[in-house]
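User: Quick sanity check before I run a bigger batch. Here is a single chain. Can you write out its predicted 3D structure?
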Amino acid sequence: MSKSKMPGVYFWCVRLIKADQFIGFVSLDRYHDVKNIELSYEFLPQHWGNGYATEVVRKMIDYSFTEINLPKIVSETQIANTSSCKLLERVGMKLENRLMRFGAEQAVYRIERT
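Assistant: Done. Predicted structure follows.
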């Protein structure tokens, strides 16, 4: 297995090309357990439900495995955020763990490079 190229933290702004409008961000950073890399995303509410997050998360998973050569990535979201849970499942992530953090039950999803 090749060594990961992950030297630090990656943050990207997500913009609509035609309107050159900021709609959210996506990041790859060390997870709370310090041994995994977490894929995080946040979009402005007016852009929810348009498929942008799904498109960006799929691209970031591909980037993580092909460009950075990560073996696995995780994402954490609140169980109550059913839209985010469904998005992570839609892109092929599997529920790995449930835990309490930040005063709410969290779902930790994972996906591994094949």
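The chain has one domain: 10-112.

User: Great, the batch can go ahead then.
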